[in-house]
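Weekly modeling sync, notes
Attendees: AB, CL, MP (scribe)

Item 1: holo prediction request
CL wants a bound-state model with adenosine-5'-triphosphate before deciding which constructs to order. AB pointed out that an apo prediction alone won't tell us much about the pocket. Agreed to run with the ligand included and paste results into these notes for async review.

Input as submitted:
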Amino acid sequence: MLVIKEERQLEQDYLMNVYDQLQERKIQLEALLAHARENGLSDVQQMLGDVRLNFSNISDNLDTYAALEMKNREIDQLNIKLRSAEQFLQKVDRLLVVPYFGKITVDFLEEEPQESFYIGVNGFANDLGEYLIYDWRSPIAELFYNNEMGKSSYVVNRQTIPVELKQRRQLIVEGQQLLNYFDTSISIQDDVLLQVLGSDATRQMQDITSTIQKEQNVIIRDVTHRNLLVNGVAGSGKTSTIMQRIAYLLFQYREQITTDNVMILSPNRQFVDYISDVLPSLGEMNPMNVTILQFIDHHLPFILEDEATYFNRISSKQVVQQTEIIRSHEFLETVKTADYLFKDASAFVQPLMHQGKVVISKTKICVFFDATPHDARLMDRIQGTKIMIRDEWQRRLKKQSRKPKMQDQMLSMSEDMQRKYFGKILGENAEKNLPHYAKKVLDQKYRQVTEDIEDLRWLDTSYLFKTIFKTYTGEAYAFNVNQPLSLDEGVVFLLIYQELVERLDLPKLKFLFVDEVQDYTPAQLNLILTLFPKARYTMVGDENQAIFNSTSAFEQIVALFSAFDLPSYRYDLRSSYRSTGSITTYFGELTAAEQEMAIVPIREEGAKPIEWQYQSEQEWLERMIEEAMNLESGPLVVLTKTSLEAETIRQQLSKLTVDMKKIKILPITLAKGLEFDHVVIYNASKLNYVSERDRRILYTMASRAMRTLLVTYQEAPSQYIK
Ligand SMILES: Nc1ncnc2c1ncn2[C@@H]1O[C@H](COP(=O)(O)OP(=O)(O)OP(=O)(O)O)[C@@H](O)[C@H]1O
């Protein structure tokens, strides 16, 4: 009699089978790599040994080079094979931890019977070419994330394939153990999602591959719209979506792009670190991931303010008017057309100096500039001038190198000096070549001058800045004397370089991702769009988290894209995954009236946020210590409005006997984008939180909490706390 195996047993058997095949492949790959490592070197030596080295005459030389070239190519091939075996092994290792997490059963509406597909972080085919696991980014996997039972479709090579989705199963798997599985029924309560969301926070962001939600999946896989603008409430997975989207694009366009063509602009340095594990865990390398401050600092030859100064500055209530002006889109557009202001070089060039002496005079540089075509663009004239200065300088060095004094110096040079300058002792024949060696000595001695010519030290770019500002406003721009440049000034300078002075050496970006886009000034966004006109953008943000004095509204961003003749497509994300239901409801009430109710909490209710009035700092400190000691997991994270508050608390705590690993104190500026299990808001009092911006600060703080939230205040609570 036939016994029908239980469904669960069938799944378990399939898993064991896949797991065994993965194991087998691991053993094969390890053996191959071990063999290559042990024998690789001798194999390579043998390969080279086959080539008879013969350099006795020219034609033999060519033969030998050709043969060496062939061998080199063979070695390259071998290396490529080894590298791909290593990558394959990494994939298999990843799959051995969790072979797959999803299964779909699909009816292709043809004669054939329905088919099942298992979905994992990577794909895997066995020796027979049977796909046992499909990569989550493969076309068919779209059906899993679309989550539409019954009639559905997916797209392959721009063709829509209609199908019927018969079954969608989420599996919780550990190695060869099937722990549980859930079939999606009509009313979906995503147990797997809830389980994932309920687990403790880690220091680093995790990937969300197995539980990507439908509305996130659409954004991750959108390759039809050139530029995406995502407005999502706190915790709606904007950053997660960016990371998954990068992995998706790297897979989808693997023939055309590498991580060198992708860049992420992150809100702060801690965040850069926070998201750095996600892509490697998906088997992809990290793309360039920097803050805008780091990016501009890297490309500008001036010193910029540091991150702490920057955040302090943008956290102040207001900025001076001149800063408002240089933050505007209009001012940046003015820079681009400022060419006509700079016809008279004597206003903006300066002499080239070396050790306090003029080496190339201002007059000489002006003559060079004047020799360039007067109707040419400023940039071309500057570049033409640079070539002339460079030639003049080389001519002078050459002339100097031929002078008898120089020759004498060369002849009396000690052996030590010869070694220092030439890396060797000059032989008998050197005398004939003395000018050549003298030139080398001069090149080294005056290399600073050569660098200064290349770095345009003879150009007063701040004059360009000030003149453009004066023309635009009628007023003088005042730089902070002896202070590094502010980021806002850096933005203008970088644009001046790119548009008027010298093209920057920029990466060839195909995709650029901007997180927390609401914190960018119009000028910063203008600069980014100007520097990377060919890139496709994904910008994500939340207007409710606009807590700085530097900000752009979403409408402004859309208008900016239009001003650049670029389309933008907007998505809204309303479901929030980070915090428990009651915390989500709590921070939802901190939004402006029109946004209220719009946030959909996904996690279970959890503990209600607690509001607590304290009488003195001492009382507050004592309670914090007690709370921290009572926690089972994670530190207690105290969020403050300013860095000064954070510093003061840190100092007070350091005088007490506290395990500082259990309490972390962060100003909200540095906690942006991050999340913590247990959050305390410091002094949310009536006096401390007054303005609309303060309301948004409270919203941002509260939405960092995953499990518990304690809102503390002295005297009366802020009007925004109901
Ligand atoms: N589909 C999902 N499955 C599992 N976890 C998710 C999912 N979407 C988001 N999360 C989790 O929710 C939390 C918030 O995600 P993320 O930081 O990407 O949101 P965000 O919109 O960028 O947040 P914020 O703007 O508040 O900083 C993270 O812990 C993330 O792992």
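Recorded for review: Residues 352-459 form one domain.
Action items: CL to compare against the apo run; MP to circulate these notes.
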